[in-house]
Design brief:
This protein is an alpha+beta fold. Helices cover 32% and strands 23% of the residues. A hairpin with a 6-residue loop joins strand 2 and strand 3 (89-95).
């Protein structure tokens, strides 16, 4: 069952039969243990972020962890993951324009030790965003 993730504590209390205090404590515990985290999807175009891309990198194994750590700190990177296959690091990148994407690829990705190849694919249109159900 898919339910609105914006439910208030009062709504959760009614749905579970627990007190609001118990609901709050349970939510705090789930967040503290990493079981629950909150992610926000938003329309990025009104904010002037018009270029969305996926970047698949082939990084030398000895440099993979460091490349992932460095790139994960970049504001352009929305998501980063070590993966298996012909590439071993994937990024979801959001930039203001093509110039910013080029600078990110050449100055940030290109400066990393161990990056062997980079394949960049622009997102033309989202068909489905991350959802549950």
């Amino acid at each position: 069952m898919h339910t609105d993730g914006r439910a208030t504590l009062t709504e959760l209390q009614r749905a579970t039969g627990l007190s609001e205090t118990a609901v709050r404590k349970r939510l705090d515990r789930l967040r503290a243990t990493g079981v629950l985290h909150i992610a926000v999807e938003y329309d990025h175009e009104p904010l002037g972020l018009d270029v969305e891309a996926l970047v698949w990198l082939s990084v030398a194994p000895h440099a993979l962890a460091e490349a992932g750590r460095v790139l994960a700190t970049r504001p352009e990177v929305r998501f980063a993951a070590a993966v298996t296959g012909s590439t071993n690091l994937v990024l979801s990148v959001l930039c203001r324009n093509a110039r910013q994407l080029h600078a990110f690829l050449s100055e940030q990705v290109g400066a990393l030790t161990g990056v062997r190849t980079a394949e960049t694919v622009l997102t033309l249109r989202r068909v489905k965003t991350l959802t549950v159900g």
